[in-house]
Design goal:
Two copies of one chain form a homodimer.
Chain A (H helix, E strand, L loop, with lengths): L2 H13 L4 E2 L2 H4 L17 E4 L3 H14 L3 E4 L16 E4 L6 E4 L4 E4 L5 H9 L3 E2 L12 H7 L6 H4 L6 E7 L5 E5 L11 H5 L8 E8 L1 E2 L5 E7 L2 H14 L4 E6 H11 L9 E7 L4 H17 L1 E7 L2 H12 L1 H6 L3 E4 L9 H15 L2 E7 L4 E8 L4 H20 L18 H5 L1 H14 L12
Parallel strand pairs in A: 2-4, 3-4
Antiparallel strand pairs in A: 1-2, 5-6, 6-10, 7-11, 8-9, 8-10, 12-14, 12-15, 13-14, 13-17, 16-18, 17-18
């Protein structure tokens, strides 16, 4: 037997044959997440964990044999955080799907494989709401959401994933299972380890259970849609809105993304607009009308061509769905490099204008959509994968946009995580001292470096 | 010269004589925080930092000379987190008081010595609000709030300190200054180091600047006050309220604390009541009336003797002030051991009843006040400091109440921190594996153990 066969046999012995997959036709589907990292490795095996005990068994075995483990949720990550490494294990939690909601403490205890949309549904059965809403909410898992500190559209008012995580069960590199936090709104006992694991992208431990804070169901929302001939009028309107109130959603689409969505969905969007804003208020009662009026007036004052207000939830949701569909719609026009840069709000106009300059200079199309209310943008760099020169220019633009965001006091990733695709830029953002601090913590928790090697660090 | 004189001379040379205090009459005031730890040591010197550079200079010097450093904010801590250690430095940040508010990004950049009430005032100048409101908000500092992940009365709806911290500047044990996070609502770049330092009680680094998220000013609030003959009716009412809505405040006082406050303030509280609840709604417009009606009805249905509703902010605030005054009021009746135990809400009645049993068994008075809406209680154990036997029984009750909270799935500290007074119980709550994880992180960041030794760990 080869060394590889020996390893697989020992893995099967350790964790049980039922959850070990080595069929290359199947494991091939676990080499990449949605970032489609071309440098993805070929894993030794995929393990489909069904329980915390399975995850623990994998880590005990991996520590003994010094085999790297790449944890994976739904595989919808956009930064290559779940890219397989050669000779490693891909440990998928997709089969761990239990959920229990306690309406009295307003918490949910969830296994990592449950999809975000399923968590929302379980909460809704009790009249409760789990707010974070990545655009991929129908296909991303809560484990991945926790591991990347995922965001979404409502975060401008309701915060991001970490704001809703009260407790975690985590399996450490050496197989130790730790329970952190719990169903308590307040807990100052010991270090904030729960929060340390949120957004740690699998490099410190594997999240096997999440205790989530839930809030009362979102009240009905009204939606404001505004189109602008000039991009700078739209960014002016964004600042005017956030200065006067806290919208429940404030999304931005540029001309390229408007047209890509209109091509795909034929919903009558204004193809001539330079930018479109979609804003929401979900304040109770008459206050909602006040807020939509304020937002509509801010758009008009900033020079909007057309401003439309609807109290019909379905009509409003159609526009949010159009915004969410922008990434797949733009992807129909070519391959994508997907950015996630964010800046403090006053720098948003500079960022959007700077991106346009980079696109011009590199001769590539960059569609821009944004969670505008919190300064988090998703420039989508489009390239023809058959055109090597264009692909190279697209990659240059990818780096330049991150460098631009950093120069504006921003971040290379607002909600997707660093993964493997953005790690070269992380030191530029946080500085060498913070990288050293990061390495010290990584080394303290995973001295052999077997947890998701190559991600973040 | 003695070794001590040599050390002080070298400290003065390193950080400047202007900020080094060795006058024993002054340093005596820095030996203890409000926990009044009888085992407090005598520091070598107190350093009054005026800048991050001062803090850095102290840590460089302390690392070189292996001298322990106890960071201190306003000294209002209740767990002995800032108790001086023999031969160490007490590093106070009380003179670092700068604040800048940016209304566009809705953030404030604040030095650690500014008081919570001053942060609120600076935000209010721009129509903004910093929610966390420890009862000590007029005398506690934002640095201490960050270091303990402080809570307060409004946290039941608005969350705790960590939910408002977007960025930190921290000086590490070796004098390295790191900048973590920043004025961005979303940032998934690298490990969540900002959140790790929140609640770390000075054992990982010294917080020298905080970037806070602010929100629009709180709308006017209405207040519901209800008194109950039976304690269990009050806890029933708490569950009924939190099951149906999210109050902006939901406070509890027992008979002992009601009477202590009434003795001090003569405001006409019902001395015969077994319990009093003070609840608030700050929802906009008509929704507020709906919520106060729902809360009042829940109290009546649970068996309240009297239910009083007021839309007058001053009148409502008088009751909140009465609740805040409970600790000093009870303290007039004897020395206090102050608990901060929290439990998941359904266990609140068991906790309160269990505390009464412990008080009976130990023959001590335990007054109970609580941030009832989030299950965080402050049992106040009263003893006569001249009565050594009673003091011993009070200490036994102190431990037994924490053990009770742990047995109910709760925490030994909801918002005050572990400090030195509660650290013996921390392993019982979090388990040995989490303690080991905690030690690994502590060792990675402070290998010589000079940062606040004896606190938490």
């Amino acid at each position: 037997m080869s060394i590889i066969d020996d390893l697989v046999t020992s893995l099967t012995d350790a964790v049980g044959a039922a959850i070990v997959v080595t069929d290359p036709d199947i494991t091939a589907g676990y080499r990449q997440d949605w970032a489609r990292d071309p440098n993805a490795g070929t894993p030794l095996a995929v393990v489909r964990a069904t329980s915390t005990a399975d995850v623990r068994a994998v880590m005990l075995w991996a520590t003994e044999h010094s085999v790297p483990v790449v944890p994976r949720g739904a595989g919808s990550g956009l930064s290559g955080g779940a890219t397989a490494v050669d000779g490693g294990i891909v440990l998928t939690t997709e089969a761990m799907r239990a959920v229990t909601v306690d309406p009295v403490t307003r918490t949910a205890v969830v296994q990592p494989g449950l999809l975000n949309v399923e968590v929302k549904a379980a909460a809704a059965e009790h009249g409760l709401w789990y707010p974070p809403d990545p655009s991929s909410f129908e296909m991303c898992s809560i484990g991945g959401n926790a591991a990347t500190n995922a965001g979404g559209l409502c975060c401008v008012k309701y915060g991001v994933t970490t704001d809703y995580i009260l407790g975690l069960e985590v399996v450490l590199a050496d197989g130790t299972v730790v329970n952190l936090g719990g169903p308590r709104l307040k807990d100052s006992a010991g270090l904030s380890l729960t929060k340390l694991f949120v957004g740690s992208e699998g490099v410190l431990g594997i999240i096997t259970e999440v205790t989530l804070r839930l809030i009362p169901a979102q009240p009905p929302a009204s939606t404001v849609v505004a189109t602008f001939t000039r991009l700078s009028d739209a960014t002016d309107a964004i600042l005017a809105i956030t200065r006067s109130l806290r919208p429940a959603m404030l999304e931005f689409m540029d001309s390229t993304s408007i047209n890509a969505v209109e091509d795909a969905m034929k919903m009558g969007l204004d193809r001539t607009a330079a930018a479109m804003l979609i804003a929401r208020s979900d304040s109770p009662g008459a206050h909602r009308t006040e807020e939509t009026e304020t937002m509509a007036a801010a758009c008009t004052a900033a020079g909007a061509d057309e401003v439309f207000v609807t109290d019909d939830p379905d009509e409003g949701e159609a526009f949010a769905a159009a915004r969410r569909f922008a990434i797949p719609a733009v992807e129909r026009t070519g391959s994508l490099l997907l950015e996630d840069v964010g800046v403090p709000l006053p720098a948003l106009a500079d960022l959007v204008q700077g991106i346009a300059k980079i696109a011009d200079a590199r001769g590539v199309v960059v569609a821009v959509i944004a969670h505008a209310g919190d300064g988090n943008t998703h420039p989508l760099i489009v390239f023809d994968p058959e055109d090597a020169d264009m692909e190279e220019r697209a990659h240059q633009a990818f780096g330049e946009i991150m460098t631009l965001a950093i120069s504006l006091g921003g971040t290379i990733t607002g909600e997707h995580g660093v993964g493997r695709l953005k790690k070269a830029w992380l030191p530029d953002q946080v500085g060498e001292d913070v990288m050293e601090l990061t390495r010290r913590i990584k080394h303290a928790l995973d001295p052999a470096g077997i947890l998701n090697p190559g991600a973040v660090l």
